[in-house]
Amino acid sequence: AGAMTATESWLRKHRLIYTGATRHPFILTIRDGTIDLSAFKTWLEQDFGFLRSFAAFVGSVLVKAWKESDDRADEEVILACLAALNDEFAWFKKESLKRDINLSEVVPQNATAGYSRFLESLMRPEVEYTVAITALWLIEAVYHESFAHCLEEGTKTPLELREACERWGNEGFGSYCNTLKKIADRRLEMGSEEVSKKAEVGFLRVLEYEVEFWNMVCPPH
Ligand code: HMH
To answer: What's the rounded mean pLDDT across residues 6-24?
Structure first.
């Protein structure tokens, strides 16, 4: 058997928090059809705010790839991510119109603001490309795993939420996540132990912020 890659060993080692982020009660209520639509509205509002910071972060990862990467193909993957974000912004605007939300008036809640500050810390030039691309992979992978779970056979995901679930849950998005994972593993393999430690800390923080984000939308009882 081949040796486990860095990301695989971290997924194994930090399984509990990973599951907490990808099988959150909010996702489970979408899946079983009991979701509270006001929670979905909060998610829509707050995620739009998150995406603004996320787009800036992805831009910074592109800069790092351009400066530091050993493989020019990485830049194209990150550019495709930015293109998809452009599409996502349009989708959020369309959804907000349907649901009587004024996105320009939305105030970021603590979890969103905290997550944005974390992303901003990763945008600093001294943060290594390896650390940033590992975070980018995981941020996308958590959404893919979460929403793909709502599309499985036998789930009762409400029709009006299927489109949202398909945005991140579709197979194409899954292979894009896999491409990011491979880049992260390639970089982690060629990097130092020190960079790898920093990337693992970033990995854990992404999962913590993802759980906090879901908790804001759907508070634990
Ligand atoms: C909070 N995490 C959060 N929002 C998103 N849209 C993604 C990840 C994936 O893009």
So the answer is: 98
Cα angle: 27, vertex 149, 49; to 5 degrees: 50
Site residues for ligand 1, CB cut-off 6 Å: 47, 50-51, 139-140, 142-143, 210, 213
Confirm if 7 and 137 have CB atoms less than 8 A apart. yes
Ligand 1 atom 9 nearest Cα: 140
Enumerate residues 6+ apart whose C-beta is below 8 A from 18: 11, 207
pTM: 0.97
Q: Which tokens belong to 205?
A: 């923080």
Residue 194 known to be catalytic: no
Domains and CATH numbers, the chain: 24-217 (1.20.910.10)
Q: Residue 68: which residues within 8 A CB-CB, separation 6 or more?
A: 128, 129
124: phi > 0 → left, psi -120 to 50 → alpha, else beta; which? Answer: beta
> With the CA atoms of 169, 174, 176 and 182 taken in that order, what torsion angle do they form, in degrees rounded to the nearest 10?
140
The interface predicted TM-score of the complex, written ipTM, equals 0.97
